[in-house]
Design goal:
This protein has 410 residues and is α/β, with parallel strands linked by helices. It is 51% helix and 13% strand. It has a five-stranded parallel sheet with strand order 2-5-6-1-7, with helices on both faces. A hairpin with a 5-residue loop joins β3 (104-112) and β4. The chain is globular.
């Protein structure tokens, strides 16, 4: 009965903290070295496919930064937050105000000293969002000049209470983009502002988390971004790390049910070492095993059932938005048997001629890849090569298109 009512310890989900984070000790060491900089010259980018644990890892950085004497501010960067220079400034000021609102400064005001006369007096007021925004609006110059003035003032305020060091942490930063057609450059403003104040010795560290398209976009906006950031690319876990991620939550929760070695090896293989899929599959397997354990039965990992659920919950929505011709190109990509590794336009052209009734020209491949990139299914690295942007997508496509290939639809 205890087994039947025991809570499932696995927590798949976007940014959900797992009960145990495996295999990220190297990243912790790198982040600690950044926190120990006497003068900030290196900022940080956490990048990788969806499901590798970027958001979770960033959240585990927070207590480490605070323990090292840093203030932590930031949030998700939605697309609307980076549309214009003004909205980017508003985002920074909103986040800064969380830290500066605990600081008070003197401000001149007019207060009545009699029934008619007024004389200037000084009062102390907290440095709220309104104070920072007023400074931004009253500073002459371009939005970049205004942002730098706010950052300098905020540093002075925080330094006055002994907390001058701030980590600005932004998730989903691949949404950042300049728009020359509209004469709006929010990404450039962000990079220029932080590079400027860091040159002045202000210890503000920028931490950006996003898909692999993030770093090329930063370099395209400002070539010096290549020297401004240290890039940590998160990939799949090793077999040992995957095993730790599978078994440790059971130990931590003192669970009465355990996975046998055969089940563990199956989970390692089917998850591909991706943290999200490990959590997803372990949750499903746990529910199955615990029900059978209550009846004294042993149940192997139901791979087919888990794959069907994963396909429905994770992949199907993305696949439904893809056109027939785009699906054909994606199928040609899977025929290269590269998994999540890179491929080129020319390789796709040759593969399409080999496996499709109607192949693609290089220009058509380039056009479709652009559309798939906008949908978040494909990404282009800075060297002009392409990869699947969703883990295990190639395996899903193979499963999904198997019947279509047999019927000659491709």
């Amino acid at each position: 009965m205890q087994a039947m009512t025991f809570a499932n310890p696995y927590r798949p989900g976007a940014g959900h903290m797992p009960p145990h984070l495996a295999g990220r000790e190297s990243e912790y060491r790198d982040f600690q070295r950044l926190l120990e900089q006497d003068r900030v010259v290196d900022n940080l980018i956490l990048t990788g496919l969806r499901g590798v644990g970027k958001t979770v890892l960033m959240e585990t950085f927070r207590p480490r930064a605070i323990a090292s004497g840093w203030v932590w501010v930031g949030t998700d960067l939605s697309e609307s937050a980076s549309v214009t220079e003004a909205t980017m400034a508003t985002r920074l000021i909103t986040d800064l105000a969380v830290a500066t609102s605990s600081v008070s400064v003197e401000q001149g005001v007019d207060v009545p000293t009699g029934f008619s006369a007024k004389a200037p007096s000084r009062v102390r007021v907290p440095v709220t969002y309104q104070i920072l925004m007023k400074l931004y609006e009253n500073t002459p110059g371009l939005p970049l000049d205004k942002v730098k003035a706010v950052l300098r003032f905020a540093h002075e305020c925080l330094a006055s209470i002994g907390t001058p060091k701030v980590v600005f942490a932004y998730d989903e930063a691949q949404n950042l983009a300049d728009n020359s057609a509209r004469n709006e450059f929010p990404l450039s403003v962000l990079l220029d502002a932080f590079q400027s104040v860091q040159r002045e010795g202000i210890p503000f560290l920028l931490l950006l988390t996003g898909l692999p398209t993030l770093f090329p976009k930063l370099v395209e906006s400002r070539t010096y971004a290549e020297r401004m950031f240290r890039v940590l690319s998160l990939g799949r876990l090793s077999k040992d790390e995957s095993k730790e991620a599978i078994l440790k939550p059971l130990d931590v929760a003192d669970c009465p049910v355990l996975f046998d070695e055969a089940s563990v090896q199956t989970l390692i293989r089917e998850s591909g070492g991706y943290p999200y899929f490990i959590q997803f599959m372990c949750r499903e397997v746990f529910d199955v095993i615990i029900q059978h354990a209550a009846r004294g039965e042993m149940q192997p990992v139901p791979v087919d059932a888990i794959q069907r659920k994963l396909d429905a919950d994770f992949f199907a929505g993305r696949w439904a938005k893809v056109t027939d011709r785009q699906r054909q190109l994606l199928f040609a990509a899977t025929s290269l048997n590269r998994g999540d590794d890179e491929f080129t336009i020319q390789e796709l052209v040759e593969a399409s001629k080999a496996v499709l009734h109607k192949g693609f020209t290089p220009s058509h491949v380039n056009q479709i890849l652009g559309s798939l990139s906008d949908q978040g299914l494909i990404y282009k690295n800075r060297f002009g090569k392409y990869s699947f942007a969703v883990p295990l997508l190639s395996e899903f496509i193979k499963r999904t298109t198997e019947g279509a290939v047999d019927q000659g639809m491709f």
